[in-house]
Each structure stands twice: as C-alpha cells, then as structure tokens.
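Troubleshooting log. The previous run stalled partway through. Resubmitting the same two chains, unchanged.
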Amino acid sequence: MSTTFTRRQAMAVIAGTAATLSSPARAAGFDWKRFSGTQLRFMVSTHPWTEWAQKQLPALEQATGIKVNWEILYEDQFRQKLPLTLRSDPGAVDGFFTLPSWDAAAFSRAKWYEPLDQLIKSDLTAPDWEFPDFFPNILKIHSVANEQVGIPITIELQTLFFNKTMLQAKQIAAPKTLEEMLAAAKALDDRKNNIAGYVTRGDGVQAVYTIAPFLFAFGGRWLNDKGEPELGDKPFVNALKFYGEILRAAGPPNIVGMQWKSTYPLFQQARVAMFTDATNFLAYFKDPKQSKIVDEVGVAPLPAGPSGSHSTVISWGPAIAASSKKKEAAWYAIQYLTSKAMSAASTEATHLPPSRQSVYNSDVFVKSVPADMIEAIKQGIPNAVPNGANPLVAQVPEVRAAIGTAIVAVLQGGDAEKAANDAQKQVLQILKG
Amino acid sequence: MPELLMLPALLAIIMVMAFPLAYLLFMSLHKWSMVGYAPPAFIGSSNFTALAEDERFIASLGRTLYFTVLGLASNIPLGFAIALLLAQNFPTRSLLRALLILPMVATPVAMGLVWVVMLDPSLGVVRYLLGLVGVENPPLWLSDTAWVVPTLVAVDAWMWTPMVALICIAGLAALPSEPFEAAMVDGASAWQRLWYITLPLMFPTLIVVAMLRVMDLLKVIDIVYVMTGGGPGHASETINLYNYLVALSYDKIGYGAAVALVLFALVLVCTVVLARLRRAAQ
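Second attempt completed without errors. Output:
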C-alpha cells in the first residue's frame, strides 16, 4: 500500500514541476534552447544517479537541443581514464563526475575544475534553479577555496544501523555515546551462536572512511590548518584504541582485512547486531530479495564521543572540465539534471538522500525512506564533516594505505600509539613527495 | 635476399615487444604524474635507488617469491599425480578429464569472489564442512597474516592445477611404450617404472609446465586483488599488485615503470633458468 501511495505522490510532484519546466511562461523567461545543436561528452562513473541521468538524456535533448554523450565507466577504470583524457586531450571531455573527498586536492591543483560561481550568478542560470535550495553544508563538499566546482547530487552520510530484534532481546537501546556503544557491542556479541556485536570495515584502506567519525568524536581532524597530518596526536590514538577495542572484543573473528562487501552481508543476514557505514547501505537491508532483516533494521545517529557526534559527509556530483570549449552548454546540461524537478525524480528513482532541501522535505523523499533514517540524516548533516572521509590531499590512495596500515595494526592487537606515530611519519613523507 | 623474408615478423616483434619495453625503460627514468599538465621530468636512476629503500616493495618481492615457490610445490606434484591417474584406463575417464577443465575456464575474478564467500567464517560453507569432520576453529584464512598467502595459493592451485594435469596427460600419452615394456619384462615394479622411466622421460614436459606456471605465479594479481586487495594490511600484496597501485592508483607512473621493469627482469631470469634446465635435460 505505502509503495503505491509513495509512487503516486511522487509522480504528482514530478508532473507538477515538469509542467512548470515546460510551460511557455518559463520558456519566455529563460532560453533553454540557447545552445541547441551542441554536442557534449561527459565522463562519469557507475552510480545510481549516473544511471538514472542517462535515461533523462532524450528529455534533456528535447528541452535544450543539447546532445550529451554520457560515458559511464566502472569506478576503477574511471579513475584511470578521466585523468588520462583530461591531461592528454584537453577539450575532449566537457563534464565529468567527481567525488571531491578523493579528487578535489589533486584536480584543483591540476586546474581541471571550471569554477562555477560566475556561471551560477550569471543569466545562464535559470531563475528557478535556485542555488540556495541546496543544503549549505553539502554545497561545501564541492567547494574548493570558497569556489563552487561541482554540484552535489546526494548526501552520503555515515550512520549507525542496528538490529531491533537483537537489541530488544537484551533490552538495549540504540547507543548514544561511545561508552554505551562499546558496552552494547560487548553485550550483544554472542560467539557461540556466531553472532557479532558490531562490525565495520577492517580493511586498512577502506577503514580510513569508517574510523573518521571516531577521530572526530575524540576531537581530532585529519589535517591542521597548514595541511599537515595530525595522526600522532591524542585524538587519532584514541580513535585507533577505540576502533581496535570494540572490533576485537565484539567484531566478527575475521575482522582484519574485511572490506565493505563482506561487512554489510553479515548485518543483512542477521549475523551482527550493529553496523556503521554509509547511509546508502539501507537499500541492501530493505531489499526483501536479499535481506533477512527488512523489518528489523533500525537507524540512529552515530554515537557521540567527548567532542560530540560528527559523521562524514561526501557527495558525488557533476563538474565542468576547465579545458572544455563548450562550458556554457555543459552548465546547461548540469543545470537541467540538477533542477528541483529532476532532483525529485532522481530521488524517487534511487531513494538516495537528495542534496536539495525542498526535495528532502518533500513527500518524495519522506515517503521513500523510514522515519528513523530521515531523522538520523537530519541530525547528522549540520555536524558532519564535509569530505571527512580521508585527509584532503592530492595523494589520497597512498595516504589511505599508510593510515590503513595503522588501523590494521590495532585490529591485530598492536599498540595504538606506535601505529599512529608510524602513520604520521609515513604520511608526512608521502606529502613531501 | 632470403633474410628479407624475416622482416615482417621482425617488425611485428619490434612493435609489440621492443617498443613497449624501451618505452617502459624511458618512463622508469622519469618522474611522471597523470594529474595536471606538467611534463615528465628526467630523474635518472632515482626511481631504482628509491626501490632499494622501499620496504613495501621489498616485502612484496619476497612475498611474490614465496607465493611462486608454494604454487610450484603444490601445482606440479598434484597435477602430475592427477595426470598419472587419468592416464589409466577406467570407465569414467573422459568425463573426469572434461570436469577437470571447469575451474580453468571460469573467470578468476568470479571464482575469487566465490571463494571469499565460501571461506567466510560466519557465512561460508568451508567452516561448516570442516566442522562436520571435527575441525573446530579453523584458521581465519583471509584475515590471518600467516595464512593469507597459502590460502591464495590454494585457490590459485584449485584453478590452475588442472592445466598442469592436462599438459602432463598429453606428455604421458606421447611417451614411447618400449622402455616400459622392457622394464616390465625385466620385472620392474610400478614404483620403479615411475621413478626410473616415467619421471626422467617426463622431465622436459614438467619443465615446460613449471615455466608456464612460474610466469603466471610471479605475475599474480587478479585473485589477490579480488580476494584480499593485498590485505590484511599489506600481508598478501604481490609485486604485480603493488605495481598496479603505485602506477595507476598512487599516480607515480615513472616509479611504477621501475617496479614493472624489476618484475620483468625477475620473470625473464626465472624463465631463462628453466629453459636452460630443459635443454640440459635433453
């Protein structure tokens, strides 16, 4: 029942906004056909949003006359081909998909992003596109040195998932602090029955993302204002200690080296009571075809440490290549795909939290996601660290590997202080080049 | 000028072999980034001197050799034994030979993922099966730094021992029958025939198989990438995986080229040694 209702509601919203979009009044105010006949090439990675957007290209062409060649690549391949193309064939790519927590430092140093502020303020932007509608803290994700370089499309926050049945059975409430979380994880851990209390990533490189909220909860940050790492400091040592303690005490036995593709199935198959990772994982838990816990999954904000609860927030989004010769047309295409109506439509199709406040508060989103998830995200957004997934440096993969070594060391029972100091030394060396 | 007839083949070899190698050497002498527009900077042999101090590189080199030795030590005897068995005449022989090819034709990446699931201590079937035969608390195959390489070797062996067996079956079929008949007339036991006739006659074949396997084992990356990503930590990082990460993920093209050259030299030396052995055997 609720699905039908959601769909109908959503369709009404979409139809309503789409009608405004194509109405003569609007067309008179803003000339969508200004770059009619232009051909563009966008290079993007596989993502629910890019796959959805590909299906909107015929409509885009009809509305603007712009033909977009939408090249979708797997993320690994994308990360290799995009730099290669931008470097060796300037002008070949007009727009691309970017994840600033990974790309921003390197791409802005390479001057690959076209600054968007001028375009947004100019008459090339439709009056009803409404830039202020985006969550301010989410816009920051795609901002480098106070200049907008991309348009965030979704909100990828980290949150706490818990198995309601398991927690109720032991009369445990969703933990609100790290101490409560540790105690709950230990109490819920049931080795005999092959059930773990808590799981998150144990693979070094990947775990940099999941340890970040603990670092922030202990009052730390990845880099100081000069861009130097602060890994040898107390907060990171404390985060490592906590991560090691909770996962060694209540994590699955093979936690060391566990990638997300191995962690979420444990929660999905009711083999673990609590799980922290990106909000996106909800889709896997709510899918009756693969999940055993469709009705048992609870969502709560991340437990707070001495410095509060700070999630990480990242967002993919389209950007314009500085080397493009058709920047204005590329901006038209991006604008079209990120308009209010389209944002509502993509949210309806992907169920991913939208970056636009109007859509976030609309029925489209509210009805497609459980209330506790809405609440957790709402609480999380203001305090989340934009691009906190890892240090914002040009050498993200290498730095993640160095920090990951420290995480693996504590998961294996090593000394947190030594691991932290080793990581600090290594990262310093990597940043020196 | 009959030598001119060689020209097309020579040109093809230069294009597909010599040029990439020369280009690799050229890259290895430069500091080279794909991000931005800075041209490659010539730095002489700095990349190679840096390799000598790169702990991760040295560890991955040692690990790759360990992987290769374990791989050879398991593949060759096992494959040869299977070949001896399947060279016998018995009813289901053809069916078994056909089944033998299955692990080999499956994609390594897909098989790697299947093994990850099977080896999972919570959801996997391996722990369950071992439990049935009384093995409680088996090792954490992919999470234990001591077990991860042998486990990967086992999965690799599962995939590639059949190839060893198939080549050995072909080799066995091509052996002359006279020495065996003579030995039987002289009253040699089955064990004696195997040790004194089959093995020496099969030696060249075994060397060829070893050569093929060494080349693959030294360059292993697919199952490692899929099953552990080189982890836990760097405990299963092979030189080829490190090479991939350095060049394409860490954006150090020149340094990656240097790693690739070392790997190339390693494979070349091992192959040449084995080829010499084979010639000596003949």
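Takeaways: Residues 55-87 of chain B form the longest helix (33 residues). The mean pLDDT of chain B is 92.
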